[in-house]
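Sorry to interrupt, but I need a hand with the structure work. Go ahead and set the record down below:
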Amino acid sequence: MRHFYPVIHPTAIIHPKARLDATVRVGPYAVIDEGVELGAHCVVGPHVYLMGLTTIGAHNQFHAGCVIGDEPVDLKYKGEPTRLRIGDHNRFREHVTVNCSNTPEGETVVGSHNFLTPHCHVGHNVVVGDHVILGGGAMVAGHAVVQNGAFISGNCLVHQFCRVGTLALMQGGSGISQDLPPFTMARRVNEICGLNIVGLRRAGFTAEQRLELKRLYHVLFRSGKNMRAAIEEARKKFTSPTAKILLDFVAEAKRGVCRDAGCVAGENEGE
């Protein structure tokens, strides 16, 4: 991140009780509130607002206009001090918003090595894993979980309490109100259209692992069986650690899972 200002720009407003590592750089007109802790080599760009009980690790970059740690968008919230925890090596591009949790005992979590692009939003009590990409305008609602390596494209919508599985991909403009299984691709609303093959290759999955996932995908989502029966059948045939990730995720779904775009509506819904 390029910067053309001293370590702390004279126009920045930093509460005397905020805790900043000596290597932190803060740009013009940034505001850092009392409950914020910033780790080594973070860069806070111009007009960034860091607030709440927010703990931030090392090597994070906040570009112009980010609002990080603001109150949850929740009518039940009563103004209590609540928390946000951010890991290391994240990039928050222009005007990203991340809210604190809605209760003192909860927390919003953003892991490490994530890339949040302009105007995306992470709601209260969301848990974002590592190596996640959120495209411009993507909205992740409260209590959702985004697992490691997921790619949520521009202007996507993730309903509250939904899960996005590891290495899953959402095509631009898609939305989910059900869980998106690991390794799959979402399109339109609550539909999947196969495996995220490019993501699997980039993650180092072998041809044999990808073939196994393809066969498992067909049993779960294209066999025409209800999900409970499909899971029972699949557990007898697929026993690798990779297959277990997908099977366990689908079996644990409380909101149902997104259905294959080529199947009849409802036949793959959870029970």
About this structure: The mean pLDDT is 94. The radius of gyration is 20 Å.
